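User: Structure please.
Assistant: Input sequence and predicted structure:
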Amino acid sequence: MTIHLILLAGGFLLLYFGAEWLVKGSANLARSLGITPVVIGLTVVAFGTSAPEFVVSVISSIQDKSMIAVGNVVGSNICNIALVLGAAAVLMPITANRSVVRRDIPLMLAISIYLLLLSLDSHISRIEGITLFTGVILYTIFNYYISLKEKPGSQTPYSQPNDNAAGGTPETGKNIEAKVEEIEVIKSRPRQILMVAAGIAGVVIGADTMIDSACVIMKQFGVSEKFIGLTVVAFGTSLPELATSVVAAMKKQMDISIGNLVGSNVFNILSVIGAAGIVRPIQVPGGFIESGLIIDYGVMMGVCVLPWLMMRKDCTVKRWGGVLLLFCYAGYLAYLIATG
């Protein structure tokens, strides 16, 4: 037990420093490439912090543990919004680029609905897995294309509201670049890429260490595999998002913070479930409705709608909104414990 507690603490430290490197490297990379920070958050950072979900779900699929593969993604998406965004907003109100509210969150919801439709027959085939994985390729290309139209330094408005102005005022690329410059400047492109890579490695290895240690500790208390998949594994694989988004919020890199979470949820569904379905068709033991997984899907979509409702007027998740999201996550945990 003692060694696992030490590994748990070590994994947390590696996770924190990995998040620091990832935010710093990605913010500088965005500036040097002429790409907006929100696009970096939606792609590079999101893919990197989704790596634990990818590895866990694909391995679970190979081992024919489909409930862990699906439950990990659904639980992680709930955790990303309800816990991670909630915690980040409580620390500092999160103001997003208006395009996140108008385009990215609705897209995340549409993809979640598509996953729901695929799951209604309690089966995700290889063909359906291919459609999901193709979606992540198109999503990445789409974000790159958008980034070419929305370069820092251009006069294209991002319509990111100013808290001091009633109703908000648009921000230009120069305003966003000024925010990026609050982080230590790294001019060397190889060093920027190395820092992003080191950050991704740090959060992935740190999360993996924490997951393994937590699972061993939980199993010693006789907790079921399903409960571990929906809670400990889901929370553990969301730790990179938690660390990255909180650090980004503290450094006032709001576009990276919210972009990381939305992008990570999209990557979780498209690439993680897609890859798992391609490796082995996914079967839901006991049936999609009978197993209660439909409720988890409903909670996932519900907590994703909440930030969109909160940000419709001023693109900001305020502290009270963060508290509400945290209460939602606490309620979901209570439900899992009661039914577990």
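Confidence is low (pLDDT under 50) at residues 152-182.
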